[in-house]
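Researcher: Structure prediction, please.
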Amino acid sequence: MSGVYTLNLDVVVYCDFDSEYGSVFTYLSPSTKSITDISSLYNVHSLVVLRHLRENRKQYTAKVEQISAFDGVPLSVKFNSNVGYNGPINTQMGPFIHLGIVPAASITARVTQQGWSIQGTDYTFTNCDVNPSSYFVFLLNEANASYITTSTGDVLIEPVGSAWVTQAINANVDIPSNFFVKDYELHFGGCGARLYGSYMYTGVGQIKGVALGLKSNLPTRLG
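Model: Predicted structure follows.
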């Protein structure tokens, strides 16, 4: 049944067996300081769920997949690592969970279409400078650090940077609020989008927290 499970003294997860996307989704607690093998929490590499908490305290979910141009390329989920992908700017806010979308090695030319699929629809942009950033990072921010201020700040290209919010649907079941992190970093580059957790969405308001659901076709082995 859905609920909180302790895998060992340091790793606590919430398992959602009632997801609107079928099967079981596992959410890693932000209290986790380290995990040797995050891949042990899931066995589906083509789909994750991006869940967010709004100012109205309601939870919403969005199914994240590759765009058709990268069909068959697995999504990458790593703990405090970004091997094969560009890493976050705000490393001082670690540890972090890194969702890598298009591998850096696949971004080798200008004027290529990149992005992600949200709820079954491709949201793309044209890469203008071969910047290989293609990730969503969940910043656990153990030190309670502040964001690094950059000269460009938040950059939002609609709808690439906002579809994960605007196209999200009401969650079937709420997960505990302490499984959300308030700090995150989204970067599609170049000329895609870059957002930090301070962003306000018109009609939605402040995003109060984000969480990543990892899918298993069979129930996660617990214990």
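Model: The CA atoms of residues 43 and 216 lie 5 Å apart.
Researcher: Thanks, that helps.
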